[in-house]
Write a structure and sequence with these properties.
Layout: H1 2-22, H2 40-46, H3 51-58, H4 62-76, H5 89-102, H6 106-113, H7 117-138, H8 145-159, E1 166-174, E2 192-200
Antiparallel strand pairs: 1-2
Length: 202
């Protein structure tokens, strides 16, 4: 019995040695790909004259972007570690908005923001989850006559349209084709789901 155990141990060690010879271990060159750290986003974030980029790429101006960042910051903030500095909340929001506003691929977004593709995926998911947690604090319909009257007055002040609570519109959100894709194929020759939303003030 002891000889059998010794033989098994010897065989295992030989297999390990052979595996190391055939597939030698390659030491990891670095844990984090070196990146410059300051890219074009950090530049336009500080530059008051680059407003054209905001509306074009984020579907909002900088005065809207900054309050949004402040709202979600507690939900998406990450601490620095001994291995790397965390991505700032502003950059996290920008990455997620770039994806949501234009539907660009994560590979393209990663190149724009000088981060990894998987990082872009994670950041976008975390941002959407943060919005879902906070949505009840900011998006709600009038629940009684007084709130409805207030919403009508605010909407009329802003849009000069009387007796309207809000504006309704829709959009196509592109998706990966599901197993039964026919119901999701839209007039733009893409697979999408339709979102319809009402926007107003209360």
């Amino acid at each position: 019995m002891r000889r059998l155990q010794t033989l098994q141990t010897t065989t295992t060690l030989l297999l390990i040695v052979i595996a190391r010879v055939v597939n030698p271990r390659v030491d990891r060159e670095f844990w984090v790909i070196p990146r410059p750290g300051v890219g074009w986003f950090e530049v336009i974030l500080q530059d008051e004259h680059e407003s054209r980029y905001w509306k074009e790429h984020f579907r909002m101006q900088k005065p809207t972007f900054l309050p949004l960042m402040e709202i979600v910051q507690p939900e998406i903030y990450k601490r620095n570690t001994v291995f790397r500095d965390a991505i700032s909340p502003a950059k996290r929001v920008a990455i997620a908005l770039w994806r949501l506003a234009g539907g660009a691929s994560f590979r393209t977004i990663a190149t724009h923001f000088d981060v990894g593709k998987s990082t872009c995926v994670t950041i976008t998911k975390e941002f959407c989850k943060a919005l879902n947690r906070l949505v009840g604090n900011y998006i709600k319909f009038p629940s009684n006559r007084d709130e409805t009257a207030k919403a009508i007055a605010l909407f009329q002040d802003d849009c000069k349209i009387p007796q309207a609570v809000g504006a309704i519109d829709g959009m196509h959100i592109e998706i990966i084709a599901p197993d039964e894709p026919f119901d999701y194929f839209d007039r733009h020759h893409r697979y999408s789901v339709t979102m319809q939303a009402v926007v107003g003030k209360i």
